[in-house]
């Protein structure tokens, strides 16, 4: 068991880092650890509808700096910058090729279980969550899963003393077109969800402000 106080200390340590020290780089081993916590994150139906694009190339970072107001003063200086993608609704259709292949090859499900899961997922996407036929809702649902990975990566980074910033300060459609246009991904398969910077802080953070536990927790 991990020490509870040490874990809470990491939650206090994590803050939305506003300025990174360009001289300090995260080691390959530490960054791999952060990515691993994204990869191991849970997702609805275990579909892992994400991809993590680590953007180290300066021209692409400059493009992001120029378009993403939330990334300015971070994206050029941080050690590692990650663009998190969500799988496009067409890829997640129970009628497509991708889901059954994913269930067979990644989840190692036998054929009977694949067909059963596809039936469940069809019911879920058509009836329970009303995603099918609503591309924006379907995309947002995939994005929700990516935010679980995002949260885990931010926390894991803090646990090893690495600073981070979640970034959704950008015009979504324009930024997505620009990144796909640079060849980072196939827009038929993925769409930009959220971004994150990782590195080491230049300045001490502002004191953390949060609502009190009793104001956000309700027992029923
Ligand atoms: C999904 C998400 C998107 C965010 N986008 C930005 C951003 O674009 N730029 C930025 O400087 N901070 C961004 N933040 C940081 C939040 O403003 C910050 O987490 C919040 O004010 C709480 O402060 P703390 O993280 O320092 O505790 C984002 C946070 C989250 C969770």
From TrEMBL:
InterPro entries to which the protein is assigned, alphabetical: NfsB-like, Nitroreductase, Nitroreductase-like, Nitroreductase/BluB
Cofactor(s) listed in the protein's UniProt record: FMN
Gene3D superfamilies to which the protein is assigned, alphabetical: NADH Oxidase
Keywords: Flavoprotein, FMN, NAD, NADP, Oxidoreductase
Gene Ontology biological process terms from the UniProt entry: 2,4,6-trinitrotoluene catabolic process
The Nitroreductase domain, residue ranges: 13-180
GO cellular component, as recorded: cytosol
Coiled-coil regions listed: none
Molecular-function GO terms, alphabetical: oxidoreductase activity, acting on other nitrogenous compounds as donors, with NAD or NADP as acceptor
Family from the record: Belongs to the nitroreductase family.
Protein name: NAD(P)H-dependent oxidoreductase
Naturally occurring in which organism (per UniProt): Ottowia cancrivicina
């Amino acid at each position: 068991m991990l020490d509870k106080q040490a874990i809470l200390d990491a939650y206090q340590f994590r803050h939305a880092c506003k300025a990174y020290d360009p001289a300090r780089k995260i080691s390959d081993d530490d960054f791999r650890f952060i990515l691993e916590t994204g990869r191991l994150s849970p997702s609805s139906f275990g579909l892992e509808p994400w991809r993590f694009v680590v953007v180290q190339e300066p021209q692409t970072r400059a493009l992001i700096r120029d378009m993403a107001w939330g990334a300015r003063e971070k994206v050029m200086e941080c050690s590692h910058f990650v663009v998190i993608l969500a799988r496009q609704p067409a890829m997640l259709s129970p009628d497509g090729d991708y889901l059954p292949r994913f269930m067979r090859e990644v989840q190692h499900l036998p054929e009977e279980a694949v067909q059963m899961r596809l039936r469940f997922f069809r019911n879920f996407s058509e009836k329970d969550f009303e995603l099918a036929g609503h591309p924006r809702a379907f995309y947002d649902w995939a994005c929700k899963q990516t935010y679980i990975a995002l949260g885990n990566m931010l926390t894991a980074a803090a646990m090893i003393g690495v600073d981070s910033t979640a970034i959704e300060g950008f015009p979504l459609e324009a930024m997505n077109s620009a990144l796909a246009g640079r060849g980072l991904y196939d827009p038929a398969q993925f769409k930009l969800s959220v971004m994150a910077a990782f590195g080491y802080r230049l300045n001490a953070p502002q004191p953390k402000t949060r609502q009190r536990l009793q104001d956000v927790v309700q027992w029923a």
